[in-house]
Amino acid sequence: MNIYSKKQRWKLLLAGAATLIVIASLWYTNVLVKKIADQEREQVQLWAEAIKNKATLVNYTSELFDKISKEERNRIEIWAEASKRAITSTNDNDISFYIEIIAGNTTIPVIVVDEKENIVNHRNFDPEKSKNPDFLKNELELIKTINPPIELDIRITKDYTLHQKLYYKDSKIFSELKTVLDNLIESFISEVVINSASVPVIFTDSTQTKIIEYGNLSPDKADIPKYLETTIQEMKEENEPISVAINHNTINYIFYKDSELLQQLKFYPFVQFFIIGLFLIIAYYLFSTSRKVEQNQVWVGMAKETAHQLGTPLSSLIAWVEYLKMKDIDENTITELSKDITRLEMITERFSKIGSIPKLEDENITEVISQTLDYLKVRISKKVSVQFNKDHQVFAKLNPSLFSWVLENIIKNAVDAMKGEGVIMIKVTDQSQYIYIDISNTGTPIPRAKQKNIFEPGFTTKQRGWGLGLSLVKRIIENYHAGKIFVKQSDEVSTTFRIVLNK
Fold first, then answer.
1. From CA 490, how far away is CA 492, in angstroms rounded?
2. Domain of 421, in residue numbers
3. How far is CA 220 from CA 184, 217, 224, 324, 415, in A?
4. Does residue 492 share a domain with residue 367?
5. pLDDT per residue over 438-488, tens digit each?
């Protein structure tokens, strides 16, 4: 089996294993996120039920205070009625009874005024402060804003009725109880936002627009009205608001949404996938770079060693040619031998340049290609027709020796692909910035799946091939000439390799 076929299978297996790991990781993370979300919602529901229960307690306390307030007004009305009866009654026993009722009011502050709003009587105010008329006047103005007055129409005679009004305010005990109720409601609102199971909450009035309190929101943004409005809208879309009746059936609303931790956990699988993917990409890049560096070292080492090993026998061959010239050997034999030695010198020069920075100069590509074809035509099958237009002169920066090596490898591979019979066409196109060299052959097409692998070291379709020719071609074009080489197209008609060089 070809090494690259094995490599491809291993890549697919590893990719499949990585995909399974990622899917399993994402699935398990999603399961955890769902469990945490369910638990958090259960906590929110428990918290909401506790809020409703406490709201019921607050409402019950408020109703109790309403009853106490009504009871105090009833007491004042009875007290006012007793005051009238005490003045108009002629029965001594009744008068004593009414006076006893009047004296029984020791807690509720009362002010009685005449028709002209002059204070004629008062009760249950601080004795020292009551000596100051301004104090009672100020208290009267305050009391008027608290409770409606009770009319005291006392009929003195048949023709004369005394018209008075009785004003009162809550007793000290009731006022203290109301303060307790207000504190209880305020404490309830605070506990709504403090004990909110760590989720962001906003407490609003019945219109859902006026914000009473909020909790677990960003301190930097919480004071921005627009931010709070936007957050309420988000909460409304995410969860149904909790309605709470507080104090005389006033309906307020609690908006909430998932905690910041849960929101982060929802995106965690995608972050995890990104990190795993990034890690795999970096790891692949590092391993690939390391492998390429290692390959480069092997290539350079092999090339240098080959050039060194060829140097000694080549020097010996040159000496033997000179010796044969002195022995009157046939001139044609010496000429052919000299050509082969020259060829070996070129090969040695090529190998010596691998790993070194080659010197690139403006060269006539047409001439370099022609010289290479002249050398190859006598060494390939006579059934292979090579077509190339020599008339067009094109110049580019290249190293003739290395570029000729590229052409030799591509043409030899083309001859093998055509099994020694077919047409090879070479076309040079001069563009404004680049020069395109297209080398086409009528041989067996290259499958699309293998078109990227043919330039890899060790890839070959030949039984005795080493898979180094096209790899060397790619290295010379891309590393030494800063160009590109790729399979432009390959089908049943022809296969075309394109070389791109800078001008």
1. 7
2. 359-502
3. 29, 9, 8, 97, 75
4. yes
5. 999 998 888 887 887 888 776 666 655 556 778 888 888 988 888 999 999
